[in-house]
Fold:
Amino acid sequence: MAKQFKPETLCVQAGWSPKKGEPRVLPIYQSTTFKYDTSEQMARLFDLEDNGYFYTRLQNPTNDAVAAKIAALEGGVGAMLTSSGQAANFYAVFNICQAGDHFVCSSAIYGGTFNLFNVTMKKLGIDVTFVNPDDSEEEIAKAFRPNTKALFGETISNPALEVLDIEKFARIAHSHGVPLIVDNTFPTPINCRPFEWGADIVVHSTTKYMDGHATSVGGAIVDSGNFDWDAHAEKFPGLCTPDESYHGLTYTKAFGKMAYITKATAQLMRDLGSIQSPMNAFLLNLGLETLHLRMPQHCKNAQRVAEYLQKNDKVAWVNYCGLPGNKYYELAQKYMPNGSCGVISFGLKGGREVAIRFMDHLKLAAIVTHVADARTCVLHPASHTHRQLTDEQLIEAGVRPDLIRFSVGIENAEDIIADIEQALNA
Structure:
């Protein structure tokens, strides 16, 4: 399906193809388990010799249909849904890293991902080095070690909104024989498809624009099928040597281009179990059906809000890659010519205290920890999500103490701007 249809059609049609007399709308398979007629049929499923369903922790028809839709949108060979974006990030790295391994990561990433990589995964014996994504290829290459297994970055970072030079990162990763993993949550595949620029694995927090309505926490991992694991077999024994927990099956030999995503399902989901519920997958699918309609509206509104803020004399600075003159404008035009996302960051003259007073006076925009859904919402990281950090640590994490993260919804842009104006005046 991915070959002949454009993204708008895939949003609506991909993943679920009912046969005669089957439900037109993807059903919720709200069952933990699935029946078979003979012991032999079940045995073949457990040996990965047959495809099919036996337990929802591993696979479920609702989840698989939605994963297939996301894979089609990204142009990948396969995908797996997870219970959250954090679970997707963890599985994506842990699928190819084990104790004693190392990976390299852009420093411009979401704070929750930074903690996962910098604190929790270190407890598992997996080390990480953070690099400034704007540094030269030579500078970033210095972070690589013989035991480095991956390079990780975010297409548009949350909340600093830095744009990743995907081609540059892909060149660095591939010259060291490792895959590039890209978190594509903010642009979504409607505005950017990292596989087309050399990325190998894409992850999403589907909680954001894909769900689009703030109803369901979820994540996804998509495999491009392009990385040649066997060419670097000594680096990736988990994929290229026999797995004793499956009678010595070797993933690259048994599953070819699907090796990475099959291992993630058969091994990590089997053992760690961060499955997305079929109900949440059903709601996510409803969100995906309108993703191609919502993203242009988010971007159009955000552009207007950013232009308004840029002209307002109470505003100290605005960061939105759609503004000509923005540090990332050229990169955004290259990777996301149709628009980036609906999230803007800005600071007010008077700093942190004024930012808090401004937010308290907003009426249409709500103060929430969430970002990237249909409703306009706002957050002050220094006093909310990053409140445990000092001002020095905030700046090091790319979050200025006065930074306001403003997620522009799909309401009328004039109403959103009027709300900002009355709060600034108050």
